[in-house]
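Exam review. A common question shows you a sequence with its structure tokens and asks you to describe the fold in words. Practice with the pair below. Do the first one on your own.
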Amino acid sequence: MVKNEWNKIIISLPGAHLLQSQQWGDIKHSFGWDVIQKLWQDEQGTVVAAAQVLCRKIRFAGLSFPYSVLYVPRGPILDWSDEALVKRVVTDLEKLAVKEKAIQMKIDPEVITGKIVAGVETKEVNWVTPYLEKQNWHYSPEQIQFKNTVIVDLGGTEEDWLSRMKQKTRYNIRLAQKKGVTVRQIELDELPLFYRMYVETSLRDGFAIRSEKYYCQVWKSFIQQNMATGLIAEVENEPVAGLMLFYFANRAWYLYGMSTDKQREKMPNYLLQWEAMRLAKTKGCNVYDLWGAPDNFNEMDSMWGVYRFKEGLGGDVIKTIGAWDFTPHPTLYRLYTRIIPKIMKYMRKLGKRKTLQVMEQ
């Protein structure tokens, strides 16, 4: 498909997502995934659904196998209230999985099951999960993306935004300004600095990250195509925190955040988020996705502290069905889901070792 033609098509569909963009597919292709783009049309020839499917052939210990794994990140994209269309798309994806000899076909569409607004939870009708179960799809043991997220409404004025925030958040934004925290956009040659701060964050907070090559390629590619901006917070010209803001289809995402242990008492992360909201608005975005919320909304959840920070920005929780797997080869799938966690555990240990080496340089 012609460059960016895919984007023009999917932007018109409900739930268009950054991870279904042409640019995301290009990044994944450069790191070993094949990309299959599928469209569905109605009787008038209008595109009503789309799925950018990532496909990776199984290789292990230098050997290639005639099987693959398929993944539709944050897709397929369509109106999930249209039962006939959903069944048509799901059936076609199942056929694709069989054709590609897939051990699994994973989807994680934003099918909303509930919301938490101002502390009040509501549930939405969900016929999709029972349908997938009937079709022999399984709730995935490997949830690659966050199942739930926090969305900030960018409608209204900046005063409206502040009024929807928690009092402590408003105070911390003003405190950061008062204490001399400044925020600016980064230059491309500062991406290694961004990565180094991300390394420090991963070690402090205990999550695994990829190589510098991967992140710098992602960030550089999206910045150059005017789909992302890096923001860095400084105190007396010293970098202390940063975030990468992505935008696509009138929506912004906070996918990567990083900080050092310096000047944390001056609340640089609060001012960073405020400036990210302001920038997203200038890019035509209506909502700001803070990317990630707990599975369990209690203080025992590892994401509780992060969630409280995001909630303070005036965000509402969006709950979704999460990732689901279709398994044409159940025996291989069971074997795959037993082996992969062990491999990932080893890779995380190896990755942490390499991350520590970065900090020691």
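Now try the second one, then compare your answer with the model answer below.
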Amino acid sequence: METIKIDTDFITLGQLLKITDLINTGGEAKYFLLENKVYLNDVLENRRGKKLYPGDKIKINHLKFVISKW
């Protein structure tokens, strides 16, 4: 599980996809989410604007991430 450290109160799912290099631009997020299953705290999520807070766990295909405060 990879830890994603943020220095803000939250980031969006689209921002996470860019930070982790799963997409190159924000515009790709919509299509990425249509083609891949993304779970936020074990619940299927497909909204690129969904806010992710410290402690949230995200699973994308075989990758796992946890959000942490910087």
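Model answer, second protein: The chain is about 20% helix and 35% strand. Helices lie at 13-19, 29-35. Full marks require stating both points clearly.
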